[in-house]
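Write out this protein's structure.
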Amino acid sequence: MTIPFATDRVFIAGEWRRPHGGESLLLVNPSDGSALARIARGGAADIDDAVAAAHEARNGAWARLSATERGRILTRMGNRVLEAADELARLEALDVGKPLTQAKADAVALARYLEFYGGAADKLHGETIPYQEGYTVLTLREPHGVTGHIVPWNYPMQIIGRSVGAALAMGNACVLKPAEEACLTALAFARIADEAGLPKGALNVVPGLGDEAGAALSAHRGIEHMSFTGSVGTGVLVQTAAARNAVPVTLELGGKSPQIVFADADLDAALPFLVNAGIQNAGQTCSAASRILVERAVYDTVVARMAERYRALKIGPAIADLDVGPVVSARQKEIVERYIGIARAEGLPIAAEGAIVADAPAGGFYVRPTLVAGLSNDHKLAQEEIFGPVQVVIPFDGEDEAVAIANGTDFGLVAGLWTRDGGRQLRMARAIRTGQVFVNNYGAGGGVELPFGGVKRSGHGREKGFEALYGFSVLKTVAIRHG
């Protein structure tokens, strides 16, 4: 595929520029290991320029637009994303390695985020507060000013939609640092935003290395709010850097999310979610259902039925649009296979594996989806985020043990619950420490309206839905004494 725009540029103040350092980074196609494109290696000087451009927009053309006008621009951006959805899907498939159908769903989701936030831009209202006689007190919601966004390589379009989309809706100007492993759709998004009439400087995109461009953005004194999605370790560095400037941070970090299956569950309804939520995007999803907790009475049945689905999985190039594509890089493949190697070395029961198709390119970063049964929740594979197509199945007896296992990790991002018992649904939903609980489903179709974020080492703050608008704004109280 020919990429229809120059990729080795930064996008600042509405212009495509070469980075100050003049260097570039290689993007690799994870499906075959070939060179895909070169992207700019932005650095601190480029971040300086981007932040300056954002402040100029925030105090100029972007600031002069009403909330309604901002919303209309976001809506136009969403429409253009839909028009370019096939192109964006192919870019994401080539860049990230996810099957084409999944990449297309991400493009549609980006358009939906822009539609939602386009419509929400003029719907966030202040309040009046009853107070003493002779006073009228009201609150205003105002933008932070310039917001920084560091997005990961696994879902660039979706995370741009939920963070940048919401920040722009509130009237912030944005500086976006996409991941160096995969950022083609982030660059394409900048082009779409410009064509849709977003004022120059309202969105600036600086690709580069995390410890160069990312670190410069996190520590920049001109940034007034940071949004970061990625690993726990990097999130700590981002928050530490921002704290030196007393800047608020939204962190969406790792997960070790459980799906909990009780004996009364509708297994026919549950099984597609039990498997798909673990292997989607080759398991490279922070909310992946990497732990399957099963009540002992149906444990053997669930393992056997999941194993049957696993054995039918086909793994191959992203453009072939099979069940699972490659992981994003050789490094990620090494990490995932190290965990699978631990399972084999310890003699853990491998319930089933998927199959890599015979004609998959030898240079691709393919990992066979692996289902591991019969381990306890304190095992390394049940505690650490693998970020690959590996699921573990853990038995339990009764609600109390299910809650203890579900809560028994450092993470708390998402949980799924499968039971027909209405009382149990509510008890479990309250008892599980996590940011989202899905009852008799998992993900609720990815609804952009649903606030998303975690507790514990999964992070803090919320994106998606109206909660994101609150996070990307500051509440101002105005007290008027009029007698």
